[in-house]
Amino acid sequence: MATWNDFAQGAPRIADTFVRRHTATGNLCMLGTLRSDGFPRISPMEPRFFENELWIVGMPNTTKFADLERDPRFCLHTATVDTGVSDGDAKLFGRVRDVPDPQLHQRFAEDLFATTGFDLRGRRFDRFYAADIVSASSVGMNEGHLDIHVWKEGQPERVVRKH
């Protein structure tokens, strides 16, 4: 599985679309997980980039994090507000990896406070999930055609053009 940095090097167009859409929506994405009964769950969340990783962190004791603890597979989709996808959108597929490093957690909390004013400094994080990416895709309009960029770990990024 690829860290964010590995993924961004292997799939720069998809990574660029993800970052652009992530930023444009105030970091809002939709997280797909699997509920205990096997049905999918979609939850809004604000993943964050920090120290060359993409972090799936948020309010503790939520059902989405219970889902990830039970089954680490996820899909992360940039929030789409334009049905014509004129600015594109992107999806990441992967597994979360818990990183129980209190020093990292505090650096993250310091950075979060410095950039947003949201104060989690000094708090303990029960789960701190890094996103390991196994595949991704993005769509965007290009000269009147729909370009679909696809990446799978171990393969180069490729484009499929729909006319």
From TrEMBL:
Q: Name one GO cellular component term.
A: cytosol
Keywords per UniProt: Oxidoreductase
Tell me where in this chain the Pyridoxamine 5'-phosphate oxidase N-terminal domain is found: 26-110
Q: Which residues form the signal peptide?
A: none
Against InterPro entries, the record matches this protein to:
F420H2_bilvrd_red/Heme_oxyg, Pyridox_Oxase_N, Split_barrel_FMN-bd
Q: Name one GO molecular function term.
A: coenzyme F420 binding
Pfam families, per the entry: PNPOx_N (PF01243)
Q: What is this protein called?
A: Pyridoxamine 5'-phosphate oxidase family protein
